Amino acid sequence: MAESNTTRDRIVNAARELFYEHGFAGASLADILKKAEANSGSLYHFFKSKEELLIAVLELYKDMMQPVLLEPLWKDVTDPIERVWALLGGYRQFLIMTDYTYGCPIGNLALEVGNHLPSARQKIFENFENWRLAVRRCLEDAGARLPGDVDRDKLATFVLTTMEGGVMQARTAKSIEPFDSSVEMLKDYFARLMKAPDRA
Amino acid sequence: MAESNTTRDRIVNAARELFYEHGFAGASLADILKKAEANSGSLYHFFKSKEELLIAVLELYKDMMQPVLLEPLWKDVTDPIERVWALLGGYRQFLIMTDYTYGCPIGNLALEVGNHLPSARQKIFENFENWRLAVRRCLEDAGARLPGDVDRDKLATFVLTTMEGGVMQARTAKSIEPFDSSVEMLKDYFARLMKAPDRA
DNA sequence: GTCTATAACTTGATAGAC
DNA sequence: GTCTATCAAGTTATAGAC
Fold it and tell me: What percent of chain A has pLDDT over 90?
């Protein structure tokens, strides 16, 4: 995992940070090696190309989601609907804390690599899937508080959509307003769903 | 504008296409010049750096929004709410038509350049603003069909959020499903707003 | 305003000793 | 598994003739 200190892990972690800050194309292997305090020979001992290093980074993100993202945010929140807002609140805090410099690392890579690197696209997809499944689980746990005819899966996708679209606009505006506006609309939608009579 | 054929315009247009396909860092000036059938001397006669060329591309996008994006999509649609769906439908068609290879060029650049190029960030912001204002205008034109206490500006932001988040996920999934799910939720939200009694 | 040539540097990747 | 040295190609940007 991330906390161990093998050469391989130092390289992957440095790559994760620099891909996050400068993008995949924008981060050079030289900079990554410098940050990792490692040498070119080590990098190419573990990975056969920069692309393979990216795959390792995306796998690390998958492994990090539960312990690094969800657990701290959900530690003191048991209500499943509140957990959805806590998750969005976490991104909100992070945006403000970093003065809108950093957004969602997966979203960044999603738009940068597009279809150019198929194996990376697949890993990005898996990251989105895990996020969506975590939210869907919350919505399922909400049980009858959401009407039976509300599609939990689609609604979870919509929560991810709101997060990614809101983060993108907040970073561009250097203001939390677009993010807050989007989340406010989403919350209002939830409120209307939850007070509506069950049509099922 | 884009249709003229001066050397400058050919360069800006080639840059627009290659930044779209490969990103700002991923598109080289050599490739841009080759596509534009122009030489390095011409490029640096008009622009003092690659970054300045990006600014020109972002200004072109601003100029293109009305005639190239909105006008064709809204030509046969007069109902203001339907115009919102026509706009989202245009992106939907484009995603499918390009097999999820291309998304929103502004969204791509928004996440790639972040805060690294402040003047570019400003232009990206202006592009988002124009898009949001066009949608807000639709919502305002809908008049009393939306309850008076619905914030048109925030709702327009939320439409843009839905578009960008949906496009991101559809490209990653190589499937229209996440986009359709998101738009379906947004439409349901609109339906609930529009049938709700005016609380104002 | 357009051309060619090229500077100055960085890129991803490799070779081979230890 | 880690090191140094290095390659070949590509990068942005410039110089100066026309």
Answer: 95
Residue A111 has pLDDT above 90, yes or no: yes
Q: Are residues B40 and B59 in the same domain?
A: no
- Taking CB atoms and an 8 Å cutoff, what residues of chain B touch A193? 192
Instruction: Residue B122: give its domain's CATH number.
Output: 1.10.357.10
Judge contact between B70 and B141, C-beta under 8 A.
Answer: no
The beta-carbon neighbor of B110 closest among A168, A177, A192 is A168
Q: Are residues B78 and B135 in the same domain?
A: yes
Nucleotide showing the shortest C1' distance to residue B51 CA: D12
DSSP E strands: which ranges in A34-173? none
Alpha-carbon gap, residue A147 to A192, rounded angstroms: 11
Nucleotide with minimal C1' distance from the CA of A53 is: C12
The reply to whether B118 and B60 lie within a common domain is: yes
B31 CA to D9 C1' distance (Å)? 14
Structure tokens at A162: 């709101």
User: pLDDT for A116-144, tens place per residue?
Assistant: 999 999 999 999 999 999 999 999 999 99
Q: Please indicate, yes or no, if residue A74 is contained in any of the structural domains.
A: yes
Check: pTM over 0.85? Answer yes or no: yes
Contact A23 B164 (CB under 8 A): no
Alpha-carbon distance A103 to A159, whole Å? 16
| Residues from chain B contacting residue A172 (CB–CB below 8 Å) | 110, 121, 124-125, 128
